[in-house]
Amino acid sequence: MEGVLREVQALVARGEKTDSAQAKVLAERFAQICALNHLGDPQVYARWHVEFGELLDDPELANAHSRLRDAWRFLADATATLAS
Predict the structure, then answer these.
(1) What is the pLDDT of residue 30?
(2) pTM to 2 decimals?
(3) Count of CB atoms within 10 A of residue 36's CB?
(4) Residue 53 pLDDT exceeds 80
(5) Residue 2: what pLDDT?
(6) Which pLDDT band holds residue 56 (cuts at 50, 70, 90)?
(7) CA–CA–CA angle 32, 36, 37 (5° rounding)
């Protein structure tokens, strides 16, 4: 999962769209990881992390966490494009 999140963070940093070919590949990998680990619906799982992920007081950690939340949001949106 960490590898997918790192790759997603790179896509977000480049301003990649959630319906791009690279995003779809990562969304499919994420969906496979969710299925293999019985994590349920990948879009719901990613949205849960966006809404209920850790809250951090340290500004440096909070900044890193913000980028991680952006990655989870991107994955949720990219996964939604697979269903349409």
Answers:
(1) 95
(2) 0.82
(3) 8
(4) no
(5) 85
(6) low
(7) 115
Cα–Cα separations (whole angstroms), residue 19 to 1, 2, 44, 65, 83: 20, 21, 18, 24, 11
Express each pLDDT in 11-26 by its tens digit.
Answer: 999 999 999 999 999 9
Three-state DSSP at 18 gives coil
CA distance linking residue 66 with residue 72, whole number of Å: 10
Count CB neighbours of 26 within 10 A.
24
- Distance (Å, whole) CA 16 – CA 35: 25
Residue type, 1: M
Q: Which H helix or E strand runs over 41?
A: none
Give the span between the Cα atoms of 29 and 79, in whole angstroms.
Answer: 10
Torsion of CA 20, 23, 25, 30, to 10 degrees: -150
Instruction: Answer whether 2's CB lies under 8 Å from 14's CB.
Output: no
